[in-house]
């Protein structure tokens, strides 16, 4: 039957079972001490790495890697514990050969995660601690892992910068083709509508004005030539009458001279008079006929001039119509050309922007490569540990001793609580409701015998025991 116990009772019970408690304590301590003493020595090596801010600032060069290197501290533990970094370290330094040969690299990675500790220190540094049975290996891994982490980080950042540059290059090639297409379309449009383009509006207006002035001038020349032809026509009629009259008069004189010569001699005054008048009339007739030829030539020249001026006026009218047609079509082509130029300017602006961004991306990629070695600075490299960090043998032995004592005491108390024996009057009074009349003390004799006998009857019919020796 289980019951409660006071401190004195516990001490008494442990004293009665001191041999058993001591044996259990000694056995548990021996086993625990053996475990503590046989555990292998584990050495810890730590290195501290500071993440340097990036230079130059974004005001000078727009970076294509948006993530600041200082932000890597937020995920440094996850990245250091990542499989690529740990697997590379395992393969490079031949770590956990037994685990790799028996269970594979993945199991070795899991074990290395257990042996690795990463803590962020402040705002721009982290501490890496590695535990190994070999102090040389512990120091080697603690110094190599930050370098591997830096290599992977820088490789990732350079890949991001390179992808950004490649992206801008591909976009620039695409936009260059688009710009070339728009330029060809605009050039072909200008060829198809040459003379009717907006930039030729002023030239067409000046050409129309010049043609109008020439038409006015030619019209004046045409009017003057037609007036001259009218005058020549009137003069021709008069000249024709005079030449006919003189010719008729010359014929009459010739007949009169022939008649006079048949009547008189050459020396006759009448013959001489007629001969002189005939010569004079002949000269006058020839002069009139000469003037008539000149008039005819002038009329022909004037007619030719009129025809030429009329042709020029017709050509000028054709030119004026052409200029007017150009001016009428200019607003229409100006709208279409404006649409083409607008789309071309949009494409060209995009192209120039992408070209500028690609140049910045190339600069950023170059700076990323140049500043790569200075981003991670090992300010406290790991040294070879001289003493093991684990196990703490003194603490382990102390804990083992406490556990052994606890188990011994617990065993003694549990046995005592499960023991139903009555060893004194106090226990008897607690366990029975009958009064105890007397207690016979233990005389420490070799033949003593302790017997419990009932005494008087109680109201319930139960007698109180009497202790006899």
Automatic annotation (TrEMBL):
Residue ranges that the Swiss-Prot or TrEMBL entry lists as coiled coil: 208-242, 271-326
Transmembrane spans: 20-37, 394-415
One Gene Ontology term, aspect cellular component: plasma membrane
Keyword terms: Cell membrane, Coiled coil, Membrane, Transmembrane, Transmembrane helix
Pfam families in UniProt: Wzz
InterPro entries per record: Bact_polysacc_biosynth/exp, LPS_length_determ_N
Subcellular location: Cell membrane
Main subcellular localisation: membrane
Membrane topology: Multi-pass membrane protein
Polysaccharide chain length determinant N-terminal domain location: 10-91
UniProt-recorded Gene Ontology molecular function terms: protein tyrosine kinase activity
Record's protein name: Chain length determinant family protein
